[in-house]
Amino acid sequence: MEIKYNPGPNIRSKRSTKQIMLYLTCGLLVVYVFGLQYYLRQGSFFLKQAILLPLASVITAVVTECLYALFLKKNVVSYLRSSFPWVTGLILALCVPINTSIHAIVMACFVGIFFGKLVFGGFGQNIFNPAGVGRAIVLTAFTGARIVDVVTAATPTTTFANHGWILSPQDMQIFLNDFGGLKNLFVGNYFGALGETSTLAILVVAVVLSLLEVIDWYIPVFYLGTLFVSALIIGAFNGIALQYALFMIFTGGAAFGGVFMLTDPVTNPNTRAGKMVFAILAAFLTALIRFKASLPEGVVFSILLVNILTPAIEKYFDGKSTDREQKDAWSVIAVAVVCIIGIVLIGLSLEPKAYASVMNTAITLRGTWW
């Protein structure tokens, strides 16, 4: 009898961890540059925010880990080279609202790094995605920590959530027109988080990172695919099938979370079947939170919740022999079918509501900081 043992967490890749983190950093910077050029056209306030948010977040992440290394009496430079704190800082800065105050992102980044990463032993040993922990802190503890003298239009996801997640075909078209249509949502030319709006930029980076074996392509594919298929079925019952399905994956940070956060090799299972189930469950939780909770996006909390399930998923799939691969495939299919049915049943309980245009014709800037 052959016994297979897989130590975890591990990354099965021809590339070193340093190379993977370097490519990941470059991919994040590409997404950042796209967001930067959009907010460059929106005025000096947004440009200042687009520069200060990632700068404050990355500096906080690096300083926190420097102090931790000094506390452990380790060489700071060597420690940072193997811990990559800037990656967490950059991911966090790209997924928070553009009008988040500087003190809020500094505190959120500190909590994400220290309590989401360092208390578990540092890089490679954390249970939760550190950037996800920081984002959750912004959503909960610092909800009011916005620069409130800036009057902006609501994001597409927030607006749609306020109208019950289901619209009639006519109202759906009016809603999309208010945000420039599906094409504009796909490109990302609308108000939102600095790095989450452009699904186009994120998917291009995802393809490159997958070809370079930096991320496992099947995690974002199964995550976004489950969301898409579920929304397609729900939308079909309401006459907005394709529009609804595309909207679900174009907005609310779904693409960003699926590509840059769910693929974190430390917090997801080691086996391919386990990763697929991990992604499918994350999609189910995202839809559940969007439809039935008070949070309009749901991506970050779904990632943190599914992180809790990683050990159980790993235990079920890890160490399986080759002759069990077919049974593992059926397990993945069964989970996918159950989750999609569950999302559809929840979605069908929603009732279409009338939609009134809520978009502002201009963005008014006032110069007061919190």
Features:
mainly alpha; 370 residues; disordered C terminus; single chain; 2 domains; 16 helices
Please provide a written account of the structure.
This protein has 16 helices and no strands. It folds into 2 domains: 17-140, no CATH class; 159-348, no CATH class. It is an all-alpha fold. It is globular and about 65 Å long. α11 (218-236) packs antiparallel against α12 (241-250). It starts with 16 loop residues before the first helix and ends in a 22-residue tail after the last helix.
Q: What fraction strand?
A: under 5%
Structure class: mainly alpha
- Tell me the span between the first and last alpha carbons: 65 Å
Major sheet, described briefly?
none
The overall pLDDT average reads: 86
Query: Compute the gyration radius: what is it?
Result: 21 Å
Order of helices and strands: HHHHHHHHHHHHHHHH
The total of beta strands comes to 0
